[in-house]
Amino acid sequence: MKTINQIALLAGTGIILATFSLNTASAQTKPKGTEWKVPEAEAKKKSAIKNDEAAISAGKEVWTQQCKSCHGAKGAGDGAKAEKLEITCGDFSSKETQDLSDGSLYWKITEGRKPMPSFSTKLTDTERWQVVAFMRTLKK
Prior knowledge:
Layout: H1 2-29, H2 40-43, H3 53-66, H4 68-71, H5 95-98, H6 102-111, H7 125-135
């Protein structure tokens, strides 16, 4: 009887791990969508806030409320709603994203593009810069 319970436990654990693995992989195997070009003047913008611990903490709070559901807690594009989207949410810890200027990230948050909404009226300028400051902490 003990052996049967152990086998059942191992099988159940295997199923859970396989499901998690598939969900994580599918977040990154979706197409990226069209190229998202940032206007040069916007890419050159510098942060309007001091990127200190207070800004990062505030940015994390906004992230948790507004971004985490799609982009995930660590920016890997594996949030609960990401599965329902046709394109990937991206991996914000990647070199590709981390190489973007602060102005580029700020502009993308502000403007949005389908399926991501614009946050120009949902978040203040300061909150958007705080999210950029938090996004920098997601670097691998």
